[in-house]
Fold these 3 entries.
Entry 1:
Amino acid sequence: MNLSSQFSPLSKAWAAFGVVLLLLGGGIGIYVLILSQDLPDPAQLERYQPKLVSKVYSADGKLIKEFFEERRSYIALEQVPESLVQALLATEDRRFHEHWGVNLTRLAQAVVIDLAYMEKRQGASTITQQLSRLLYLSSEKTLTRKLKEMLTAIQIERTYTKKEILEMYLNHVYLGHGAHGVQLAAERYFGKPVNQLDVQEAATLVALVQRPETLSPIRYPQACLARRNLVLRNMYTCGVLSKEDLERYSSTELGVQKTLPNEYYGIAPYFTEHVRQLLWDKYGRDILTQGLTIYTTVDTRAQYLAEKAVTEQLQKIQVQYNKRLLARREHLQIITQAMLDSLGMNMRQVLLDSAAIHGILSKERPVQAALVCIEPKTGFVRALVGGRDFDENKYNRVIQAKRQPGSAFKPFVYTTVIDNGFPPTYEVLNQPVVVKQVDGTEWRPHNYDNSIGGFVTLREALTRSLNLPTVRVVQQITNPGTVVSYAKRMGITTDLPPYDAVAALGAGEVIPLEITSAFSAFPNQGVLMAPIFITRIEDKDGNVLEETLPHGKEVLSKETAYIMTHMMRSVMDNPRGTAAGARSRYNFYRPAGGKTGTTNTYRDAWFIGFTPQFATGVWAGFDRQDMSFERGTGAVIALPIWAPFMRAYH
């Protein structure tokens, strides 16, 4: 008998269907097995290390900057308000405490709805699935990624408790405008920590989970409001919100902060950028991911006053300089046709529009300035302005620039002779002098006002910033090499030729931070404190990684420091002093000393001065070699920044 005749066609069909199911099941099994090989290993799942933002604080406790790859600050679940958790579960995963990573019922419903509409309409991912995608997978919309997401979610559920999963999710979810996690999102949108959020504010954060960019409460407030009210309705449906509360909260505005001052660059941008560079040299990319807390020396009040003084004076100087360019018709070479085309104007129209011409000349030929304020007794840098506009130019002139100090270098000359036993009353001839240079040429210096006279004391020569007596001091009492050695001892690291009398009068180059720090030794009894920007660094758990205490060294005797301090006070106290305007014009009457500085080309103008509390250096000038002030001295250009700042800060 033929065996095939014993089976009916129906039986054969069922057998064939069974074989197909077996093959299909086996294929799916093999496919899932292959996918499982590419999932995160258990050890990786057990090491949850979110990228955390590092925060920089000022000396007065204000947050001034954040460093991050993902802007996130970790917070325990206990600190998250219950209303936020309720809103999240009511909207994203109502059966969170019941499923094992995948909600099969919700998945089936989503498949039916999507098939009915023939498009993706219904989401089915649980919070655990979303977390697996955030932590380990991409956001591509493919079947393979979806299956990996489900398998990884199951592994996560086997590794962590529900509480831990919720905590990780709330800290990892992206909520727009650079805010990762609910803590920074609460600070960004509402200006307060997450544990202080009201119910409607918590609902707003949950509303952003779905599409943080297109539901932005700042860019698309109406769309965000509608989504927030849907979250509130979900809470009502789940029984965690009364009907009265639903109506009350739904009628409130979003109440978010539309803008934040200095959101990108923060406070004291030149200062914090230098801090970032110091940290990067030691910690590398960890400063972007490890949630460090950095405590710095900058005082936000001093920083505000410094930026205000620099800005106000630069605006005045720039207007004067622009007028000079116009008077000399130099604007014809500066303003190009491309500039005119971009403005949609011709030259005549630009010249008639004062705002337009001022804007162009200010951008193309900017006057720059820098200020640094140091506490002599500690070395703490209390304020730093590296230029007129950090957004426009990141070059930090306080730390990176090397400029000729002009007469601001003279205190090193007089320190040399005072430290070697010559009194302030020692007299030097104020008459023309010829200096033989190393290249065989002759240099014939002159005083700023071309004056000459008889004998003057060392104090008067410094007070009036007389060049002729200073050259004679270098030639007859000391020598360029000794002067340069004193400058080096006091912290100047730049190259200063030890054989050139011109360099001893400020023709060499110095860094503003270094020369200001050097001046701070005078009121500190000859002790030079190292400039400090960072006082303490802590890890994310509050453990101290490093701490910097004030440290310095004695570079001058107390006697020399005292005499030099007293001589430099004459620069301001004596009516003939080059900085007498600090008293007469700016009403700054605190005990103070300092020195003006102007280079021969009028490209650099300085005033560096100190009180017992603070030493502040101000430089103003140009980055371009072909620009200069028209007989602009340190007293005229830099002192109007220094004096108002010091008066206000004290």
Note: The radius of gyration is 35 Å.
Entry 2:
Amino acid sequence: MGILSCFAPLLGQASSAASVYSDSTLVGSVQPVKGEKGDGAGLNVVHHAVSPRDASNRLNATKAKLEALRQELDKEGLQAYIVPTADAHQSEWVAPCDQRRHWLSGFTGSAGTAVVTPTAAHLFVDTRYWVQAGKEIDGDLWTLEKLGQKDVKNWNEWILTLDKGSKIGIDASLLDYQTGRKLSEQTGEHGLELVFPQDNVVDRIWHDRPERTHEPINIHPLNLHSGGSECSKPAADKVADLRTWLGENYPSDARTHSHYLLSSLNPIAWFLNLRGGDIAFDPVFYAYVLVSLDAITVWIQSESLDDKVIKAIKEFGGEIRDYAKAMDEIPNAVGEHDVLVTDGTVSWAVVDRVGQDKVKIVKSPVETAQAIKNEVEIEGFRRAYLRDGAAWARWQAWLEERVLSGKEITEWDAAEELTKYREPMENFASLAYENISATGENAGESDPDPSPARPIPLSTSTPYLNDSGANYLDGTIDTTRTMHFGKPTAEQKRAFTRVLQGHIAVDRAVFPEGSTGDQLDTLARAALWSDGMNYGHGTGHGVGEYLSVHESQVGIGHNLAYFNTPYVPGHITSNEPGFYEEGSFGIRLESVLVVKEVKTRRQYGDRPWYGFERLTMVPIQTRMIDWTLMTQTEKEWIEDHNRTCERKLLPLVKGDRRAEKWLKRQ
């Protein structure tokens, strides 16, 4: 899915200063509902839809909200206030209680930053959201800043144009350290003052703000398939590994003690072998974890704990503390001469309270370890993608039959039906992100959003794009396919084929030890470039093991994290080139790959060589291929892929004659 190389270049994970060259095709935010599947309690999603009447009411309310916010700015003596899309953990998606930018502006997209001054309100969004934001905000009240257009500055550059002496406010807990440090330096250089009010100014006027969620936390099974205990490591072993790293890199002595702070929710869930449901799509829970050589403290919401989880935390020596007190207790735990080691996603509020001189920012050793899946985890991915491939085959067979028989199926209907096919599958927990389901000009946006309030029917004259996935207890799914139900035009076929050629080039890549995702990105684009075509997002991102569909350490694209992380066996990345003809159609193909060691004819350099194993088991439609553009090797690849899918999926759809016939036709 939409390519969360998404962590902006030169900035922290899910930085509130999003890159103009967006490496992501993220999805719109939703209001979650509680749900539980098997042993994994999580959030089942509810697609959001905005009726015309609701939209009108929301626009009217926006004016009152801005007026109330400006009154608060006047009290604080502020000339501007920044409202990012973020929570205190720099999460990719945020819970309803943290959707301040959405509440204030009416814009429902998952990324964007609002800046409000006494006389104006600006919303900064990248190319994914130009159309959506334009429809959702009140143009009389808001100025839409379309990042990517000539001379349009991002918010962190735009505020530097304010009059000297201006005071600019932001909630320090919503600002990651890397962005905060740079912003603090730049505002000072321009004669501006960055101010951190004691509380969030938007919260003062958001009188019906939802409470923070505290869904039940569950112990993540070590091995779902064999019943054994050899897994991604037990939590106690992960704690021991981190302590070893801490001792080697920041040794303690009689005077100085070193601590490592985890503040990002996905690494915390992985590190503790626990899963939660506090944020839609992402089985995480609110927590901070502080590890030293002789202690480990877990700040967590007690309402989310049961006796089993409490026992599991205590078994690796964890002391449980109240999450609400973390911001006060973390600074107190770091002594006058101590060192707090953490990564760049830590909030500016934590660094400010601890003291910048005590804080050392490093590349997260926890996320580095998390990114390398072991064989048990990889086998879980294989099984999850195989089951999901069967669900997809049943769904696409149904979809083609319905459309070709003349039945009206809308973008929304198609997305909902795919979810229905996934839900009964073994180990299903939730969707991994909001379904992207788009046809025609909607697919011409890289991140379209289906809605029952906008019933766009699929047709036989234009391609249909579906980018969707599920969280299974043994793996997270991220799959995109583009299909046509009629006779594609020559231009549609050419675009599809160029995207497919890029997809194949990455899949077949062989590369030496030390290679990075940045180096592979050109392979995905070369065929498109030959026709003067391109796409404005990255080519791939890491994928979690029943965690976030986007992991930041590895991927394919121009991202600082990828420069610094050479591929090794066990790394998992998506492979998703695309092309989007605005106002007409869109193409994207996405499969998920795992890095493996391969043998080459020469093995030059006396070092390992690597390639990919494809995990995704969903056929690629051949109707849209322009075979005259394909090489013999590419033709053999698509034939082999579709036959492999047929061989592996037929036993799983046995008895479903429609799905069986569909697989054999591909």
Note: DSSP finds 19 helices and 30 strands in the chain.
Entry 3:
Amino acid sequence: MASAAPPSPDSSRSPATPPFPGFWAMAWMFLFQPIRLHDRLTACGIDFENDPRPWRIPVPLRPVYGRYVANLSGMLFFLMPLLSLAIALVLHGLGFPLDLGKWAVGVALGVAVGVAYGVLVGVLVGVAVGVAVGVAVGVAFGVAFGVAFGVAVGVAVGVAVGVAVGVAFGVVGGVTVCVTRGVADGVAFGVTRGAVIGAFIGAFIGGATGVATGVAFGASFILSSFRIPLYPLEAAVQWGLYSLQALLRIPTLRYAPVRYHDLSRLPHPFLAAHIILDIPPPDAVPRIDQSRLASIQETLEACDRSPGQRRARAKVLPWLQAHALARQVVAREFAAAAELRGEFLPGREGAPGLLIHLADIARFLRAAQATALPYHRLGHVEKAADSLEACRARCVEERSPLARALLASLPYWERVMAEMREATAAASRMLPNPFRAGPPLLPDQGREVFRGREGSVKGIEALLAGHATSIALLAPRRCGKTSLLNMLPILLPDALCVFFDTQDNPTQSPAAFFAALDRRVREAARKSGIEGMPTLPERPAFEAAHQWFDALEGFARGLDRRILICIDEFERLPALFPGERRDLLLLMGLFRATIQHRRYLRLLVSGMTAPGELDAREPDARDGMDNLWSDHFINLREVRLGHLAREKAVELLRRPIEAFPEDAVPSAVAEEIVARSGGQPLLTQLYGSLLVNRLNDTGRRRAEAADVEAVEREVLEQASTYFQNIVSDAPAGVWGALG
């Protein structure tokens, strides 16, 4: 018999390769964990898929194959006779006569048949399968012949032999055939063998007794192949372990029968409930949390292997997802929760609506965590709390497994929000600071200070109502183009607005460009609650894009709702196709066809420069690239954004939100700021934000003219990149005037 020591150092095993199982370990796994045994042997170098012939075993793997053959041979020559003798002695104790001489002949005959069959299969198929099949045949016929020859026949003999041989063939047949053809074939193999051997026994004995014995053997063989005799014990143990943990709170999942038996074909009672019960609370100590989750993962993997327990994962997964999200929120890992990123979580793409809802709440909390302004932090937390109440109502209404699991985890979300509220309680004693001078405004972050663009929005809405007209939104740098595009979904509720930023979607091929655009369309549709949105077909890039645009046009016509594709920083489109310029021409041709012929699928491009002005900058273009923009962006109507009007800028500074005190920024102070900023949106917001910070830092509630002078230096420092871009974008003739 082979020991449990690993193969010799000169083998090809890597340090991560598991040790080769010893004889007794392999015997246990052979009988009860054949799937894990197959994986273990494969990791050690036994190749069942490309099984070598005996004379072609690679030299480095010969020690591994030697241990494999030795262990299985030990089962045939040592364990099988013991099994056969045990059955014979039990029957002898029940009153049946036993002839040890005939028993020995039967066992020897079974061994001879197994060895001969194994050698034949080994030569024809390969060593690994040949040895396993030979052991299967040897065990089956050794037990059958030994008991049949050595014990007086009868129904009891048929049952006893059927159980023993059924277990052997169910395991070995299942493993060897499962390795190459799947578990179902292994079962069919075992059932067929049961019928054949039963018929053989019946014919061998003859008469009514032979028929009864054969039938008893065949029925017992089939039941044993399906592991039915073990099921009552497994079910009782599983129920007991679940009850023990439920009543006494003692972790017992690691003893679940499914972890020790791969071939149980009937579902164990309370197994899924037991796994759910073992899930630790989201605020558990990390060491306990990791240990329990590792045990759960191992149990789920065992369920995946066991044919009767494979539905357990689907029942448990919603509770694991709810736990994972709550654990991330408790640990303040809001970024991971917002993306549904982590163990057991599916990611945002294709995730259930309830998980998306909670992920959006995590985005509010992430924004609250990121901002240094107490007012903004408190506002984000309040928005998260309102959305959490809506999520709770939705869970109560749905009552799905996921809804029930999430409902149980919501108190942890509420606790985190309460702690964040308490931490920002000082915000109630300070002036609120809603001004935003950083990234573009979003509907849920800065909508209240989005001012002075009502005319532009009405112009876009009027153009969309027309026929075959697309739009160019033009404005100088940092004047609010992207903020306006972000606000369009709430300002134009009758249109599906798809925002595509060329800077945020770097691509190197037409296929990648259209794939990114497809993702943005589906994301916008999901947020708007639109289902059935056509997806990009799998064809050559431009052929697929034309077909997809036609499908989007038809889909939008059916909804009687326009789809507006908004491409921000459109001047960067050539940079997305740095190689073949023909690709850029094909893309522009697709845009031109959309502008001319599609009524419900519309195009909005946003940038700093009008298409005609871009062509004027490249007068020497060749290969069809001259007049690229004006030739393709025909019938394009321009909407221009400038600085905020004086009265709008003053209104923004004096009353950015309803809760802002009317006298905090006097009219004279607001007028002075607008005179310095010129109503430029970035600078106006920056002045307002720094002014409120100064008042809060000094404990005052009213600004003075001197405060404007005091914050101006900081405005110039924080907006230095903006001023540098203004200088670099200026025409060459202006540089001299700028000094």
Note: DSSP finds 30 helices and five strands in the chain.
